Amino acid sequence: MIGILEQFVAATNNILWSYILIVMLIVLGLYFTVKSRFVQFRMIVEMVRLLGEGAAKIGNKKTGVSSFQAFCISTASRVGTGNLAGVAIAITLGGPGAVFWMWLIALIGAGSSFVESTLAQIYKVKDENGFRGGPAYYIEQALGIRWLGVVFSILITITFGLVFNSVQSNTISFAVENAFGVDRAVTGILLTVMTVAIIFGGVKRVAKVSEIIVPIMAVSYVIVALFVIIKNFSSLPSVFALIFSNAFGLNSMFGGGVGAAMMMGIKRGLFSNEAGMGSAPNAAATATVSHPVKQGLIQTLGVFTDTLLICSATAAMILLSGAYKTTGAEGIQLTQNALSSQVGAWGNSFIAVCIFMFAFSSVIGNYYYGETNIEFIKADRKWLFAYRIAVSSMVMVGAIAKIQIVWDMADLFMGLMAIINLGSIAFHYKKAIDALDDYTRQKKMGLDPVFYKDSIEGIDDVECWNYSPDYNKKAV
């Protein structure tokens, strides 16, 4: 019976990820990019500037989560073991050309990320910690289909909150065991205790921890990658030539030619940056900002940070070291071999520490995605408590066991989740584009953009935005 289920899930995943999702993500990403007049490129300076903004005021006080904290929550979930092991797998199976397609899908997908995160801000709702929202919320409010929002909530809670967290703890326990000889059960207990201490503190504690872990994690990893790049600077042109030639089948010595390079690069890129998947908008909605577009731009920068920065750092170490030519090495082992060949034996331990930081930050980021969707289904403290216990249990189970069908089911649920989200934003993306036009107009006037219910048409019933001071005059 299990064998039949495994075959069914594997076949379904192949159809979803190799055909349906790739087409939807690329086509809609390009469409949103054109409709937004290439927002992910022309406003990149504004994205970086917005990182420094604190939480906007509500009344006379600042509350909730800042733009930077929301950025860190989503980046904590995006940046995980896939950035280290996933890139290595893509290069092993698809050749160096997979890196080009990974870059391309990030540039295209950033358009979808902008739309979904802006919509999450427009349709967010108030809670005791500030705000919450995401695809389930804008599916209900913008499309009026609550049952579909509930389906989405169930899918993302199981996929990110439970299964993906066990995947992360599994990777951590193996890496720590291989590098330091620590028993996996001991690592599991430590991870579970750390997880409980954070998730029972709610979104503000998740935000605070993410705000600390993510920058340290990312900067440390990029610095080491830069050292490898500088050390092999003279080889950089040949590596770029290798990436581009392999991407278009001009040099298919490694991997399976242009087809394999394209498929692996796109799939690993989508898995890594999550653009259009409907996960990051849950973090985007928590931010207290004066205009929804601010968080749309911040989350777009998150896509670039994940793929163009962290994934590229891994690719650079692997390709510059030549470790990808080594037979038998794949996944995290390939990344460890690549770094160790450049910096010595401590590279193996450094990657293990990075895995711990990357994966643990994903655990707490993934947890929040489930929390906000549990509250969408039913705002009951008992449900939330049960979910927190379930997350903690899955972290422990994941550290000591691995069942392949569970991971395959998670891929299936994530694929279905993405289809629901992409279909939803395809129907009401124009609200995000209208909000962008409003933001741009105010920026040209030298203002710090402020958003109101009457700034754009068709959002009179949203909860968290007021009418402008001169709304009555406009009505008359």
Automatic annotation (TrEMBL):
Q: Which domain of life is it from?
A: Bacteria
The annotated topology with respect to the bilayer is: Multi-pass membrane protein
* InterPro entries from the UniProt entry: Na/Ala_symport (IPR001463)
Main localisation: membrane
GO MF annotation terms: amino acid:sodium symporter activity
Localization per Swiss-Prot or TrEMBL: Cell membrane
Q: Which Gene3D superfamilies match?
A: Amino acid/polyamine transporter I
State a GO cellular component annotated for this protein: plasma membrane
Per UniProt, the keywords (alphabetical) are:
Cell membrane, Membrane, Plasmid, Symport, Transmembrane, Transmembrane helix, Transport
- Note the PROSITE patterns from the entry: NA_ALANINE_SYMP
The membrane-spanning stretches of this chain are 15-34, 70-94, 144-164, 184-203, 212-233, 239-262, 344-364, 385-406, 412-429
Which family does the UniProt entry place this protein in? Belongs to the alanine or glycine:cation symporter (AGCS) (TC 2.A.25) family.
| Name of the featured protein | Sodium/glutamine symporter GlnT
Please name the source species: Peptoclostridium acidaminophilum DSM 3953
